Amino acid sequence: MTEKIGVLGKQPQRRTGVERVVNAPLPTVYGKFQAIGYLDHDRGDEQVALVHGDLGSDRVLTRLHSECLTGDAFGSQHCECGDQLAAALRAVVAEGAGVVVYLRGHEGRGIGLLAKLRAMALQAEGLDTVEANLALGLPVDARDYAVAAGMLKDLGVRSVRLMSNNPRKREALVRHGVEVDEQVPLLIEPCESNITYLRTKRERLDHHLPHLDAVGHLS
After folding, report:
1. Binding site for GTP: which residues?
2. Helix (H/G/I), strand (E/B), else coil: 47
């Protein structure tokens, strides 16, 4: 039996954009959230937004959190990612409403887990995080935030108070049609293992990390 493939024998068009798939309650140690799952048809990634309270549409406290297995799951002190995720979840609960968009496919600023580990090995030999990516022939930052903007729009969010130290996240959201009314610092106290990494993020990636000025040489 011949399968029908559409009008005039053409294959049906592939879906694009982001699609909401499921909404499930998610109680956490930080508070109660709704885990809203999305499928990114452009990249094939499965994404999730953790929503607390009634978001409304304007000035929604928001975190775009790039996936970081080593920091988020293993408690790595090479970066501050795990602490930032926890701080963001606590902040939206304290606010009474907010959203943390957890962006899969962003591992290692978009280069993937194994490449990130290779870059970390180079950093252990003395390269900084920018030099390590370039030494591997990879982009310094390959992340795209179109899916994050699509998820926020699906949630009815028009403008955000963005918890981030990274000006590129703000620029990306605005470029994709989500206004950023305020950029809220998300500053984590550095430790010996990540101070060099954080200073590189400030000096070479333009992250706003004023708290590093008060930190002496850790040893």
Report:
1. 63-67, 84, 107-109, 129, 164, 169
2. strand
| Separation between Cα atoms, residue 69 and residue 108, nearest integer Å | 9
Range name among 7-16, 73-82, 113-122, 152-161 with the lowest pLDDT average: 7-16
Cite the annotated binding site by residue number: 63-68, 79, 81, 84, 107-109, 129, 164, 169
pLDDT category of residue 11 using cuts at 50, 70 and 90? low
Cα Rg of the chain, angstroms: 19
Q: Catalytic residue numbers?
A: 141, 143
- Count of CA atoms in the C-beta half-sphere (13 A) of 149: 16
CA distance 152 to 157: 5
Please give the backbone phi and psi of residue 145, each rounded to the nearest 5 degrees, phi first. -115, 15
pTM value?
0.89
Q: State whether residue 7 is helix, strand or coil.
A: helix
φ, ψ of residue 101 in degrees (nearest 5): -90, 115
Show the DSSP H helices in the chain as ranges.
81-95, 107-110, 113-124, 129-135, 146-154, 167-175, 195-205
Which of 126, 144, 145 is CA-nearest to residue 135? 126
Residue 2 pLDDT greater than 90, yes or no: no
